[in-house]
Amino acid sequence: MSSDEDERLNDDPFHPLGEAAEENYKAMLEETEYDADLGMEMARDALRLTKGDISEEEFYDRYHEDVLEEFGEDSRPMAERIEQAREEGRLERALSRFGDDEDSRRDVMKKMGVGAAAVGLGAWGTAESGGEPEPDVAAAQEDGGHGGGHGEGGGTQWGMALDLEVCDGCLACVVACNQEHNWNEGANWMYILAYEDGTVESPSPDNFDDTRDFNMLIRPCQHCTDAPCEKVCPTTARHTRDEGGIVLTDYDVCIGCRYCQVACPYGVNYFQWEEPYVDAPSDELSEDMMYDERGRWVSGRGPRGVMQKCVFDPARQDGNMGEDMVGRTACEDACPPGAIQFGDMNDPESDPQQYLENVPLARAREVDPDDQELQDAITTLEEGEDAGGMSEEEAERLLRGEYGSADSTFKLLEEYNTNPNVVYIGNEPGPNAKQVPGPVAYEDVGMVDNEKNVLEDETVNYGLGGLSL
Questions:
Q1: Judgement on whether residues 135 and 162 belong to the same structural domain of the protein
Q2: Residues 200, 89 share a domain
Q3: For the segment 361-375, what is each residue's pLDDT rounded down to a tens digit?
Q4: What residues are paired with 163 via a beta bridge?
Q5: What does the radius of gyration of the chain's CA atoms come to, in whole angstroms?
Q6: Structural domain range at position 244
Q7: What is the tens place of the pLDDT at every residue in 89-137?
Q8: Which of 234, 239, 279, 346 shows its CA 20 to 30 Å from the CA of 228?
Q9: Are residues 108 and 204 in the same domain?
Q10: pTM score above 0.85
Q11: Do 117 and 164 lie in a common domain?
Q12: 246 with 198, same domain?
């Protein structure tokens, strides 16, 4: 990339939350002991990387020396992967000089010995590739940077389906998340907001007929399969766990540089400014809540000086709270209308996938209607026409008429290719979306809505695909 192009990119806003957000992020980084310019540049290029504008190898090479100088280490997941691929590429080229067949290469390896092979790589690997990623590096990049097992394909990938059309804005999920993880009020890991965008409007919170007249957005962490926040973390604190593909922060490793906060396009990260306050001994967290199956402190509120966010409840997913809690989250359990569906996005039988498969039927199940005809429609679709006494077409028509249909599903900021593992059902906010008061105020349920005061009279830049606080 030319220096002119670098300068242009540095001048142009890169964050989906807009120029004002970037200015706030820059000021925030300048309050830390770490290089603010480096954090902003890495965040910009991390988003360019997920969009496919630059390669992972380019991103790594561009910042490796700067990260080493600033932090004394470069423990980003890509570092080990790229360096290992390069070493393998050098060894492959070196061995090719001794013959093309596999037997010749085995003989050479035997004569070299393991130690000699390791030492000799530097001398043999002088002929580097000319700009294009080496084959093994390119393969790692095409895999999304995590070696497979998550997102589309094999392995468990925890995620959510969120039905915005049935969310009533009661904030029960926010309260439940706070009770389970004890985060300081205002550092909302789960955020529920009402919005209007010039095309759709929400009613006044003092005068409405039905809570579903409000346009709602539910905002947890998206637990991206290709998370840009992970790409800028120098210490492996922010990482994607192999088990379940959830994106976590190791509080024991986090140094509070806050680079991840800038690189996240969704605005879901919070910095723990002070020691967490507790009102009673019962507010203290148990070790079963704090540590996951690997013994890493990744759950519950963080100590002073670290980043924290929604974690998809690893204590539950690891069985620490009992086998019946696996595949469930506190926010899902607390949601009265069933707007939150959590489960394995790779399992067609999981709650979120079953919900997405037939949304009217799923909504009816959550409500469990008293009307016998609607119950017969549910029975027909679940057990067949003989059981329900009507045709499947009639049953579908009845449920759609009562509970609506899923004409719109979307993921936030899909053009950034972060592969979020949260799917939304309902209206996608438009480019002029702004937060408005909802049917239930945060203070009414003992919570704090700190960011609303800043943003309630401002337009949130949602033109790139999503409103995010």
A1: no
A2: no
A3: 899 888 878 888 898
A4: 425
A5: 25
A6: 158-455
A7: 776 776 666 555 655 555 544 444 433 333 332 222 333 334 444 444 4
A8: 346
A9: no
A10: no
A11: no
A12: yes
